[in-house]
Amino acid sequence: MSSILHPDRLFSSHPEERAIARELYAAVATLPIVSPHGHTDPRWFADNAPFANATELLLQPDHYLLRMLYSQGISLDTLGIARSDGSSPDADPAAVWQLFGDHYHLFRGTPTRLWMDHILAEVFAIDARLDSASAADIYVEINRQLATPAFLPRALFERFNIEVLATTESPLDPLAAHQRLAQDPWPGRVITTFRPDPVVDPEYEGFAENIAELARISGVSCDTYAGYLDALRERRAFFKSLGATATDHGHPSAHTADLSPAECARLYHGALAGTLEAHEAEQFRGQLLLEMALMSLDDGLVMQLHPGVYRNHNPQLFARYGRDKGADIPLPGEFVRNLKPLLDRVGNNPDFTLILFTLDETTYARELAPLAGHYPALKLGPAWWFHDSPEGMLRYRHQMTETAGIYNTVGFNDDTRAFLSIPARHDVARRIDCRFLAQLVAEHRLAMDEARTLAHDLAYRLAKTAYKL
Amino acid sequence: MSSILHPDRLFSSHPEERAIARELYAAVATLPIVSPHGHTDPRWFADNAPFANATELLLQPDHYLLRMLYSQGISLDTLGIARSDGSSPDADPAAVWQLFGDHYHLFRGTPTRLWMDHILAEVFAIDARLDSASAADIYVEINRQLATPAFLPRALFERFNIEVLATTESPLDPLAAHQRLAQDPWPGRVITTFRPDPVVDPEYEGFAENIAELARISGVSCDTYAGYLDALRERRAFFKSLGATATDHGHPSAHTADLSPAECARLYHGALAGTLEAHEAEQFRGQLLLEMALMSLDDGLVMQLHPGVYRNHNPQLFARYGRDKGADIPLPGEFVRNLKPLLDRVGNNPDFTLILFTLDETTYARELAPLAGHYPALKLGPAWWFHDSPEGMLRYRHQMTETAGIYNTVGFNDDTRAFLSIPARHDVARRIDCRFLAQLVAEHRLAMDEARTLAHDLAYRLAKTAYKL
Amino acid sequence: MSSILHPDRLFSSHPEERAIARELYAAVATLPIVSPHGHTDPRWFADNAPFANATELLLQPDHYLLRMLYSQGISLDTLGIARSDGSSPDADPAAVWQLFGDHYHLFRGTPTRLWMDHILAEVFAIDARLDSASAADIYVEINRQLATPAFLPRALFERFNIEVLATTESPLDPLAAHQRLAQDPWPGRVITTFRPDPVVDPEYEGFAENIAELARISGVSCDTYAGYLDALRERRAFFKSLGATATDHGHPSAHTADLSPAECARLYHGALAGTLEAHEAEQFRGQLLLEMALMSLDDGLVMQLHPGVYRNHNPQLFARYGRDKGADIPLPGEFVRNLKPLLDRVGNNPDFTLILFTLDETTYARELAPLAGHYPALKLGPAWWFHDSPEGMLRYRHQMTETAGIYNTVGFNDDTRAFLSIPARHDVARRIDCRFLAQLVAEHRLAMDEARTLAHDLAYRLAKTAYKL
To answer: How far is it, in rounded angstroms, from Cα C160 to Cα B468?
Structure first.
């Protein structure tokens, strides 16, 4: 047993609640992992090649780690992060890991700490706290294990008891890894998700080129708006043929629109010509959300919307190192007016599902719970990104449940690039959900048999049902 | 003793706090109910006719129930909800109740569940959880009891120990039921509240016709703005003569205005002609809030403002079934600038009271507590609507108290159409307030004798004082 | 031992957490006070004259007290508050104190109550609750003690174990008291802070006169924008020579700008001429925040920003009694776009520090923690003003820590004019921080040795380091 991971961690420390939480958790702790939304690389599972080393696997791709270290004055060069120009700083991975160990105290009180401790203790069976003194030994030990067959991607996938894992790809992605997986006898279920941002957002880098590529890869001419929609339909069908059950949309806002065919055509050609004003680009994105919803009515793909992020807020960092280095900042959200055009068309349809996420917690009780507690088409995604944390999840449950109930939520998403953290993240979610339910039981707001059912629903069933898995 | 309702429900499960909460609650549990704001039908008490059946009484009028069931794909037709065109779907009330029982699990963790459990256990002494198996028997048992004299409206009013119950009516309402009650020897105190939205909001359905009716019913010509104000004054006096101590205002925002007489006249005639732009309608409503405040200075009626709801967000549902079917969604609130014109005129007057409500919890600590903790005229209404719930009330107390104290709040409002839920709602509020106070005592932030006084104030005295009852 | 102040106050009442909190608190309870930001009067320490009486010392200057009493209908005249015209109402200080005692129940559940109880019990060793019955005796006893040498400002400073106390002054202040302190053998460290609002905000009363005075006092011509900046540089150097390690900026918003030299000059001359539109004044203030940041790069002064207050919301009160009488109301905050021009210039510089405060708690988890958890230059000031309270601090920790960690925060600021409340305020902060850490330990999210380090950091080290003290 790990001395780092206490078996009661994240439960309330108060005996009545803790006892209930323990009982609820015991029944869900080892349920298979359903991961309906995330960003792992399908090539890991298609190739099944060994991971390189602790630094490349656990530190350098993790924007949660990079941002905190950077905020305390540690440069990305020192951390060995590759630059946009293709050059790489000369950083010894072992030295980078040592630097991480030297600064691990920065993560006290953060979910990163919980996840990393879980990875060290549970995945690598390392029973020591990461710090300056232990870093070097831990680095060697992790690398030793990574070189063994038990740490190949497929072996870990199986050990993690993953029932299904969704990755996320652009419509321009040929899905080569997914095609190889489809033809591979390995039984692990790794599916794709249709994420069309590069071809529906006129402000995305290279939009016109992306549309040209969309026409090429789909074999459908995109000379007209109607053709463009047909090309998107074709790609959705292709994604669906490789397991996709969902689409995902990362927009600056939740704005939707329901425009005339003439206006759609005008905006489309303006987007291709690069002549749209900002508000026109917003309208186009909003129209495309509606188009995606209408296509979902036909092909049954579940729709996800992740709005409200100021991407690449730090231009110096972006210029030097590119995206996803920890410089994305949340924005205030608005759903009541933004979603109305879409809801007016498809909100009353119980056969359509739109799963909403937000980084603006003020919308939980004010907008999202009331909307999802009314519209048959709406469901609430779990606490997202910065709020995928113990306190964040508790705020989510406390602010959503009384108006939306549990059954308008969809269980947990790990939403991660960090494959080894998947069990840790699901474990945190299961513990926190059991803790939340334990409080309701201890305060006689819910009966124990109901809590047991809900714990199972939250850990397993709701995600499977909502995402049609 | 009910096996469903635990005597310690909603208290903290931690022994020290629970013991204190029990003691505080014991002293307030059976205090008379003061209900200064709500939406029950005064004809129930004037006519004292028996209620029809469980479905018509408890389910079909309750938008909290309708919205959740609808959100999970259950149509309002299936629930037997009458349509706006006057037709009614062919739905057997017993079958509708069975459907409710089949889906009662949807309400786990919601206040609806607490209220309904309380109604079943306390009002009907039914010691079984509502579910698919029990629904039919419960339906029969409720109906059996409803047919007995002990379940006539007046008998229930007395059994519920209601000291005073305020209903809410339009100035165009002749208050026939209230007039009959005034002449009835039955001692139950049922009073009206003046809610002038239909005659002060230019965007209200039939505004010009409403003003014509206002002139007719008041006997005061509304040809001029001054006459219109006189007609409103006359109706306020009439409402006051039938017990009203308060007005209530349901506006899209808290916007107030202090316009010149010429501008008031211009807007008034534009409102009658139906020619106002949206921002002009907003100005007119804002001016009327000020006029109402000025009239309150004369007639002493306490003023309530319930702003910030997007009414009838779902146009398909609204077209088919009309208002109040669970499709109202909160909007962000703003009070600091919106209330300023009114506060500049009457905010420093301690003889005037404006009670503020919000559905935007972000305004609790940021705007409302600072405003009410300064202006003599302002008081804080309790957690409203979606926030009339255990967690909602706790957030309210935790976010309001440190800046506004307890004595700038006004106790509890049940604000309900659901007569049988009134004891349940007051019981939840009393328990949560005692729980909140128990925490302060257990953490040595407040002495026990002070907590006892505050528990009584919150359960009974503050509402009576603030509403001049 | 006081019967009013319980040794476990503000800790969780649950035994496991309380035991941990006690242990953590015991190690930090008596650490020296580092007060890097506040509003005490340096003349107190330069002159070391006795304080007058309880009413003048503890009640009349405290806007927290005035606002609550005023909100309940007690006029400022009755409280003896001097008017702007120089006249003073005829109010006996003893009678005013009695009135305070009569209404002390209004503060139940507020931090004011905690601070005042602490002052009475700890500073004056009065073991009685303030109320109508005790007020007169308490008044006499406080005054008796204030007349003794042990209650002179310097004696209290030493008794309070204050290591350093920062006051706040305008660039137009000659800092006479600070100069006298610098030449005084008394070892108490009282330093100034550079707060340039009167000379960087075109909407400040008497802006043009203030600039004339800036030129005079600095000896630098302010005829040009460049000269104006030089004059500011000169004053910063003068403040630094008297101990300042920081600047402070109280702006209506966090708006920053990075304008062309021509535009700066145009706005500057418009500001002097009084011809700027509101949005131009905002631009000028925003530009000056950038100029201040750039000067900090040169002189090393830490920069603080306190944005988002609607000052003097009550015009009647302001006209009669002036500023700081409890009529300032928070406004919604925005940092992601507002700070961008400044961050684009200096946000990546780890040698520059900008400490951010907010009165809009919605920005904690949504904007401030993500920004400070990324930019090397940003740090998070503690829960401010209305949120300097037990629940406010807990919300701050729960909403900030998971994204920003602890090491992007800067410990506690008391930010007070109320000298005698300084130990009380630091004690509340230390207790609440220990309570927060105790929860993390009890729930196995943090090890005890780490919590001990963090408790010390939060009580002492972080403030000292962040403010370069």
So the answer is: 48
B90 and B169 assigned to the same domain: no
Structural domain of residue A140, as residue ranges?
50-150
- C376–A107 CB contact, under 8 Å: no
Residues of C in contact with B447 (CB under 8 A): 129
Q: How far is CA B321 from CA B69, B76, B326, B329, C60, in A?
A: 15, 8, 11, 17, 59
B110 and A447 within 8 Å at the Cβ level: the answer is no
> Do A58 and A189 have their domain in common?
no
Contact A131, C422 (CB under 8 A): no
Best residue in A71, A314, A358, A397 for a mutation probing chain C (most C CBs within 10 Å)? A71
B106, B108, B312: best mutation site toward chain A, by most A Cβ within 10 Å?
Answer: B108
Does the pLDDT of residue A2 top 80, yes or no?
no
What are C338-369's pLDDT values in tens digits?
999 999 999 999 999 999 999 999 999 999 99
**pLDDT tens digits for range C240-268:** 999 999 999 999 999 999 999 999 999 99
* Nearest CB to A405; choose among B107, B331, B332: B107
Phi first, then psi: what are they for A444, rounded to 5°? Answer: 60, 35
Do B106 and A445 make contact, defined as CB atoms within 8 angstroms?
Answer: no
Mind telling me how many Å the CA of C415 is from chain B's nearest CA? 17
Where is the domain boundary, C113, C129, C150? C150
Question: Do B105 and A407 make contact, defined as CB atoms within 8 angstroms?
Answer: yes
Average pLDDT over residues A381-386: 98
Query: Quick count: other Cβ atoms within 10 Å of Cβ C207?
Result: 20
Domain boundary (C96, C127, C150) is at C150
Shared-domain flag, residues C110 and C243 = no
- For the whole model, what pTM was predicted? 0.98
Residues C86 and C23 in one domain: no
Chain B residues in contact with A439 by the CB 8 A cut-off are 13
**Min Cα separation A244/chain B (Å):** 24
Closest CA to A257 of A248, A267, A247: A267
So what's the pLDDT on residue A1?
58
CA distance A394 to B48: 46
The pLDDT value given to residue C2: 72
Please identify which residue in the block is written with the tokens 């007690």.
C74
| Secondary structure E strands in B99-138 | none
User: Of all helices (H) and strands (E), which one includes residue A213?
Assistant: helix A207-218
Q: Do B445 and C73 touch (CB under 8 A)?
A: no
Chains in touch with B (≥3 Cβ pairs < 8 A)? A, C
CB contact under 8 A, B444 and C327: no
Helical pair C225-241 and C261-273, crossing angle rounded to 10 deg: 80
A354-376 pLDDT, tens digit each: 999 999 999 999 999 999 999 99
Angstroms from B298 CA to nearest CA on chain C: 19
Predicted pLDDT of residue C110: 98
Is residue C203 situated within a structural domain? yes
| Yes or no, beta carbons of B402 and C110 under 8 Å apart | yes
What is the predicted ipTM?
A: 0.97
Q: Are C9 and B403 a contacting pair at CB < 8 A?
A: no
pLDDT in tens, B436-448: 999 999 999 999 9
Residue ranges of chain B with pLDDT lower than 70?
Answer: 1
A14 → chain C, closest CA residue: C14
Residue B245 confidence (pLDDT): 98
Same domain, A230 and A182: yes
pLDDT in tens, A245-296: 999 999 999 999 999 999 999 999 999 999 999 999 999 999 999 999 999 9
Structural contact between residues C321 and C267, judged by C-beta atoms closer than 8 angstroms: no
Q: What is the pLDDT of residue B293?
A: 98
Cβ-contact A201, A207 below 8 angstroms: yes
Token digits for C409?
């925060």
